[in-house]
């Protein structure tokens, strides 16, 4: 890469420069050199398409639609129709058909949405197109029988689907796509306005969340998480940021988060990003995310197989920041405070032990049964602080909290726990609308008995039993009954083993789209 393209790549994507002092602070070896992820295709809108390049046609069924702005000759149309018939392409959601050698197009890609596509189905078609054309050297044109702002929905999906995290690859690096993607439709101005006002900020928020979670723990630890999020919010209006360092958290008696982080040389932090749009209510919606930048389990150490996935144990924190970024960049008329409870859970001579008793900010005491049940601890302190300092109207937690939720819901749903019916209903609706779906899980009062301690007010884990519910109960124990509160367990959905149209393999940024939707829906 020459200097010019390096500079271009650096400008086009979010960069995470490891701080110069990282080596001495982390003691974890040489930090990977600064590099940018491959440039993404720029997204634009136009009334007319060039005759060459790659052409994507969004299809609702097997019939080639009339395409505004695409010069398609009669023989070309006939060739495509013949190919559709030969391949029995039906235009159902998720279907694709790739054609070459027709007209001047380097390639024609048909992508199905099914009849009467929803906004989400259109986005998924866009994501599919981005992935199919990942290594296409040519510029890309996407056309369809788009009404109003459908092209913006497709563009949004394209933005989510084209994400890659390849900044540390130096050999055998796949060539980045070259050229822009242009959405062609009858009303490009309306589509572009919808995209820039809503979907682009949301895609930026998702990208922030994915980048933070994909970064290894020698790059993203509490202090550098704060620095990167600050960078992302630079110049964004209506935002104020508060950061508590370890000394401040000690003064506030946050025994939980200080305790969890005390086995690590990388100091814990609590980061609060408040965004208040014009006309928004005085009391914010608090979005509180678990931010364990690496979870070894601590003294209750995890088995080594797949432990590396625990670099993503700060996905909840990353997603609340992504949602706040989307809301602020789009100037949504909402009031939110995003809270990241950041610590690294390491085994060490100074680490917490099983049977230790710690005191939380609320004054309540906790018996540590397992140092691996650390997420609930940091969330208890974060919830207490935000409740006192920001007087929110509701609190939503989001956390990679338990392995048990993965067994129950796999990668299909995040678990929703709530004592508040109205808040639960709003969250379920936001899940359906955003495509980040939730499944309600029980908080039966009898499950709470498993958290009874002989020596303290509560213990941080039960032996066996409904682990996802007891985890939720633990957090709920520290939240005032009068406070509308919900907890989302995203341990099964924050990472994807395979590439889906809107979530390429790797960290998904789950929660950004959901919480953005929740805030906009008036919660
Ligand atoms: N971060 C883990 C939960 C997790 C597991 C996330 C698998 C993603 C995939 C959490 O801190 C944890 O270790 N939970 C324990 C709780 C137990 C000790 C009560 C668990 O689920 O085993
Ligand atoms: Mn753990
Ligand atoms: Zn954890």
UniProtKB/TrEMBL annotation:
GO terms for cellular component: cytoplasm. InterPro entries: Leucine_aapep/pepB, Macro_dom-like, Peptidase_M17_C, Peptidase_M17_leu_NH2_pept, Peptidase_M17_N. The active site is at residues 302, 376. Residues 1-22 form the signal peptide. One of its GO terms (biological process) is proteolysis. It is found in: Cytoplasm. Residues 370-377 form the Cytosol aminopeptidase domain. Keywords: Aminopeptidase, Cytoplasm, Hydrolase, Manganese, Metal-binding, Protease, Signal. Mn(2+) 2 binds at residues 290, 295, 313, 374. Binds 2 manganese ions per subunit. Its cofactor is Mn(2+). Mn(2+) 1 binds at residues 295, 372, 374. It is an enzyme of class 3 (hydrolase). GO terms for molecular function: manganese ion binding; metalloaminopeptidase activity. It catalyses: Release of an N-terminal amino acid, preferentially leucine, but not glutamic or aspartic acids; Release of an N-terminal amino acid, Xaa-|-Yaa-, in which Xaa is preferably Leu, but may be other amino acids including Pro although not Arg or Lys, and Yaa may be Pro. Amino acid amides and methyl esters are also readily hydrolyzed, but rates on arylamides are exceedingly low. Its EC number is 3.4.11.1, 3.4.11.10. PANTHER family: CYTOSOL AMINOPEPTIDASE, LEUCINE AMINOPEPTIDASE-RELATED. Belongs to the peptidase M17 family. Presumably involved in the processing and regular turnover of intracellular proteins. Catalyzes the removal of unsubstituted N-terminal amino acids from various peptides. This is Probable cytosol aminopeptidase. It comes from Sphingopyxis bauzanensis.
């Amino acid at each position: 890469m020459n200097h010019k393209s390096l500079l271009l790549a650096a400008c086009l994507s979010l960069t995470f420069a490891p701080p110069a002092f990282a080596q001495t602070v982390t003691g974890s070896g040489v930090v990977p050199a600064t590099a940018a992820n491959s440039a993404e295709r720029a997204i634009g809108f136009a009334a007319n398409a060039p005759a060459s390049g790659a052409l994507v046609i969004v299809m609702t069924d097997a019939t080639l639609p009339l395409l505004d702005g695409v010069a398609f000759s009669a023989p070309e149309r006939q060739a495509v129709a013949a190919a559709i018939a030969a391949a029995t392409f039906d235009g159902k959601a998720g279907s694709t058909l790739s054609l070459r050698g027709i007209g001047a197009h380097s390639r024609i890609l048909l992508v199905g949405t099914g009849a009467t596509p929803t906004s989400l189905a259109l986005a998924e078609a866009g994501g599919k197109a981005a992935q199919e054309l990942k290594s296409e050297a040519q510029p890309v044109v996407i056309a369809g029988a788009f009404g109003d702002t459908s092209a913006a929905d497709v563009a949004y999906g394209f933005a989510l689907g084209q994400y890659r995290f390849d900044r540390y690859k130096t050999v055998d690096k796949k060539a980045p796509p070259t050229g822009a993607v242009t959405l062609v439709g009858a009303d490009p101005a309306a589509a572009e306005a919808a995209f820039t006002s809503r979907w682009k900020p949301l895609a930026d928020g998702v990208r922030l969340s994915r980048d933070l979670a994909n970064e290894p723990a020698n790059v993203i630890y509490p202090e550098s998480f704060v620095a990167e999020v600050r960078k992302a919010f630079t110049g964004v209006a209506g935002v104020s940021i508060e950061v508590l360092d370890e000394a401040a958290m000690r003064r506030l008696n946050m025994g939980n988060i200080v305790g969890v982080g005390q086995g690590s040389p990388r100091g814990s932090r609590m980061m609060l990003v408040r965004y208040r749009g014009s006309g928004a209510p005085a009391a914010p919606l608090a979005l509180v995310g678990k931010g364990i930048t690496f979870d070894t389990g601590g003294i209750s150490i995890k088995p080594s197989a797949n432990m590396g996935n625990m670099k993503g144990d700060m996905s909840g924190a990353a997603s609340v920041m992504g949602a706040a970024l989307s809301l602020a960049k789009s100037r949504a008329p909402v009031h939110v405070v995003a809270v990241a409870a950041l610590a690294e859970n390491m085994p060490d001579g100074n680490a917490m032990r099983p049977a230790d008793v710690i005191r939380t900010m609320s004054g309540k005491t906790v018996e540590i049964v397992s140092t691996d049940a650390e997420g609930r601890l940091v969330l208890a302190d974060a919830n207490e602080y935000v409740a006192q300092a920001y007087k929110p109207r509701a609190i939503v937690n989001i956390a990679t909290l338990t392995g048990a939720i993965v067994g129950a819901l796999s990668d299909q749903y995040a678990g929703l726990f709530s004592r508040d019916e109205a808040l639960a209903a709003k969250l379920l609706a936001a899940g359906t609308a955003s495509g980040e779906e939730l499944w309600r899980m029980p908080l039966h009062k009898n499950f709470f008995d498993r958290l009874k301690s002989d020596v303290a007010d509560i213990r941080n884990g039960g032996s066996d039993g409904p682990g996802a519910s007891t985890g939720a109960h633990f957090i709920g124990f520290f939240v005032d009954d009068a406070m509308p509160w919900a907890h989302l367990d995203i341990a099964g959905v924050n990472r994807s083993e395979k590439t889906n149209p809107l979530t390429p393999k790797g960290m998904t940024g789950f929660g950004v789209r959901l919480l953005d939707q929740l805030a906009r829906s008036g919660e």
